[in-house]
Amino acid sequence: MTERWLHTNRRAALVSTILAAGLLAGLNVGGRLLAGGLGRPIGLGAWAVVGIVDGLILAGWCRFAWQPRLRFRNGKLLIHIRYLWPVSLPVEVVECIFLGRNTVPWPEHVVGALHTLSVVVRLAERAEPWRQGSVNPLLAQWRDGYITLRGEWCEPLDGPLLQQLNQRLLAVRPKPEAGQPVPTR
Q1: Around Cβ 71, how many Cβ atoms within 10 Å?
Q2: Nearest to 87 by CA among 146, 154, 153, 152
Q3: What interhelical angle do 10-37 and 44-66 show, nearest 10?
Q4: 3-state per-residue secondary structure call for the chain
Q5: Model's pTM, two decimal places?
């Protein structure tokens, strides 16, 4: 059974989905106008293919934008910070989850320095294979044993939510035994 621990930012997901759908529709209509202006009729089959491709692109975007940021399943913390598959961490390597603060990646000369809250997942120092990994930089950073999820892609963050996440983490973490090795990838 999968538990959702941290949802996506629903407003950002909705706006980005609408923008993606609008962009795809605009490209489709623009292609039709361009083809018609050049006097080259394009058959219904070609437009059906374009529509199917647009639908697949939009479905992929919806999956990316609407998936929860943190889930738990079968002893693994699933962190959705990649394009296709989540990072799957054994809960034994996750020490805690806390609030952080990071700078929004916009040009500072345009908007000034903007900061947002973030969710930081601290990994055990002894878990050497988990010190860093590749992620989507729009969603997170992963280095030196810390995974920092950008807050603008998460549900509203506050202290009680993070306290609830840590309580849930403690509840699902197996009790350590003396000499138990750290899981490796």
Answers
A1: 19
A2: 146
A3: 160
A4: CCEEEECECHHHHHHHHHHHHHHHHHHHHHHHHHHHHCCCCCCHHHHHHHHHHHHHHHHHHHHHHHCCCEEEECCEEEECCCCCCCEEEEHHHEEEEEEEEEECCCCHHHHCCCEEEEEEEEECCCCHHHCCCCCCCCCEEEECCEEEEEHHHECCCCHHHHHHHHHHHHHHCCCCCCCCCCCCC
A5: 0.75
Query: If you search the block for the tokens 């997170």, which residue do you land on?
Result: 140
Tokens read off for 149? 């999820």
Rounded to whole angstroms, the Cα distance separating 139 from 154 reads 9
Residue with tokens 């197996």: 174
Given this model, what pLDDT does residue 121 score? Answer: 94
Residue type, 108: E
Whole-angstrom Cα distance, residue 130 to residue 136?
Answer: 17
The answer for residues whose C-beta is within 8 angstroms of residue 72's C-beta and 6 or more apart is 2, 3, 5, 78, 91, 168, 172
Per-residue pLDDT at 14: 85
Residue from 79, 171, 74 nearest 118 by CA: 79
